[in-house]
Every structure is written in C-alpha cells, then in structure tokens.
Amino acid sequence: MRLPAPRGPVTAALFEELTAHPHDLPARLASPFTGDGPALHDDDLQLALFVCYELHYQGFTDVDDGWEWNPSLLGLRQGAERRFERHLRALVPRPAPVTDVPGELARLATADEGPSLARFLQREATLEQFREFVIHRSIYHLKEADPHTWGIPRLSGPSKAALVEIQADEYGGGRLELMHAELFRGAMRGLELDDTYGAYLDAVPAITLAVNNLMSFLGLHRRRRGALLGHLAAFEMTSSLPNRRYSSGLARLGADRHTRRFYDEHVQADAVHEQLAAHDLCGGLVAEHPELAADVLFGASCGLALDRLFTEHLMGCWGRSATSLNAVAALR
User: How far apart are CA 224 and CA 271, in angstroms?
Assistant: First the structure.
C-alpha cells in the first residue's frame, strides 16, 4: 500500500515529509490539530491518524520504516489523539463503575438502537450498495483481529487466556485459508472487488476511518487496555445476528456460498465469542483490576456509538440515492 491522497492541509504537508528519510517534522506540523472542530467527521484529522497508526501494522511502500517511532511524528499523533478523545468523551460520557460488568455489556448490546443497516442489506440493498458496504468494511476486515491483538501482552490470567482463544479463531487456528481476513478476501473477489490490502482507503469517508482509528487508539496504549477489551466484547456481542442477515442479503442478490462464507463463519464463531468476551475476557479483567470496570464500559460504548454514526452515514446517503463513498469511481 502506498500513501493515500491527502484530504487537507495537514495530510498534504505530512505526506510530503513522510516520503523523505526520517527527520524532525517542521514546526508547522508540531501541533496542527489544536482546534475544536468535529473530529469524528474531519477527513484531514482521521486520515492523518490512520496513516500514523498504519506504520505500526503493514506500513506504506513509499514511507521509510524508521518513521514508526519518530518522536516528532508521535507528537503530531498525540495531538490528533487528544482531539479525537475529547470528541469521543463528548459523544460517550464515562460510565459509572458497576459490579456486574458482563451484565452491563449485555444491556448495552441489547439497548443499541438506530437504523438497522443489517436489515436493510438483508432485504432491500442493491448489489452496488452491498459492494459499497464491503468496501467500507475492508479497511478493517483485511487486517481483522490485529488491533485487538495488541492487548495480549498487556493481560494476565483468565482475561489473557480468553483473548488468545478469541484471536486464535480470528486467525483461523493457524490455517491461512481459515483466517477471517482471508475469508473476507473471498467475499470481495466474489463481489468483483479489489482484495488488495488498503485498496479502497481513498474511497472511504472520515467516519469509516474513525471506526478503525478507535481500535488502534485503544490497542496501542496499555492504559486503555480495559476500553480495548470492552470494544471487542461489544463487537462480538452485536455480530452474530447482523452477519446472518448479511449472508441472507447476499444470497438474495445471487451470491454463491464461497462469497457468503465470511459472514456464515461469523454467525457461529461470534455466538461462541459473545459469552467468552463478556464473562471470561472482560469479567476476568475486572475481577483482577476492579478499577478498570468503567474503562471496559467506555470502550464498549464508544464502539457502539461510532458504529451508529457509520450506519447513519450509509443509510442517509442511500436514502438520497447517493453513494456513501468519496467517489463513484471507487467501485471498480
């Protein structure tokens, strides 16, 4: 993957610097995100964050690996994270600690309301709309599980064992053809989409990047490990039924079993992961570290809130018969 096209003055200046040998960033990039605009829909901020985070994953072919831990780049990222976090906390006030964390996670998952993207994709979506949905999700699913794997070395005891068990399933038990990222590639090919890692980065809007940036934001900081596990739990606890609907929608549109296999796999896997994530993963963490209970619920609430905003974006665009992507040309 090469650097994407910039989306504003900060990414334009930053990407120019990143194509050079690692060095101290110029003063104009020391604190470029000090304003208080709508961070969750700010393309310039979300793309800058995404690129900074991607250096910890597979990186970019036109960016020297030495940038990964460059102090001045980390300073820029920290400023962007502060603004991102301020808006997350405005969207989701920090929950009060509770004694029954698994029970509260279940309440959050069942209380999650809003326009049903899964139901629309199951019953009404056109093939082009379903392809758009898959393009949005490819930003995460082509590296599925990686952001949450950052949590493994930061845990111990039952919560660590539970996370390893969940992640082992995500990675196909060590079998390449069963890795969830590989199964998603099959779905993309079945829909005649480019399954190259990061192929559609230029096509997705800020809110899609924010959904993905949240996972990296939580995963790359040890002090946010509770929120990371809460995010994963909410993800697993709200996944099984939607994936059943996605598969049903693809069948309605004529997709074969191979194209639907990614979603069919998640119907079964996430039903198992749901209980494991709530009780062994998050319950185990809070039993060992009671002070992290509110963090767990905050991470879960943030994940659910950003997913609602993502759904509202797609449903709003489709309700106007418009594309949800940055450019129609992205559907190639």
Answer: 26
Rounded Cα distance between 98 and 300, Å, is 14
Q: Could you give the CA distance from residue 216 to residue 228 in angstroms, rounded to a whole number? A: 9
Question: What does the block give as tokens for 90?
Answer: 């405005």
Structure tokens at 315: 């449903």
Is the distance from CB of 301 to CB of 235 less than 8 angstroms? no
Residues 133 and 74 occupy one common structural domain: no
| Structural domain harbouring 123 | 101-330
Q: What is the pTM of this model?
A: 0.95
Name the residue type at position 259.
Answer: T
Q: How many CA atoms lie within 13 A of 72 on its CB side?
A: 14
pLDDT digits (tens, 9 = 90+) for 125-160: 999 999 999 999 999 999 999 999 999 999 999 999
Question: Within a 13 Å sphere around the CA of 93, how many CA atoms are in the beta-carbon half?
Answer: 3
